[in-house]
Amino acid sequence: QVQLVESGGGLVQAGGSLRLSCAASGRTFSVYAMGWFRQAPGKEREFVAAVRWSGGGGSTYYADSVKGRFGISRDVPKNAVYLQMNSLKPEDTGVYYCAALRDRTDWKLITSTSYDYWGQGTQVTVSS
Tell me, what DSSP letter sits at residue 69? Predict the structure, then answer.
């Protein structure tokens, strides 16, 4: 089992920045990648960003909607992953979830149903 706890959400004005953190514990050696997903009211959960956790040189992946604005990073010794969000827009509003993937298949990095473990989520609200 892997336990994930997110923090860092909040209310910010459009154009502002937030940094989300995800603390992992448990069998983190089994994790292949860590991802961030978000879900807005009335919408499906969508991929935001992912980073390879073990091996792969920490390769990163982003949804087109956040490329150039968001940055995902990992700190393996600290069992942590971060999401730096800049130039935030109202459409970035939602609950942000941290997730861990065990399957070492890269195309699965962007699909929420592939992930094995999830945090409880943290609310991000961007006002216009």
Answer: T
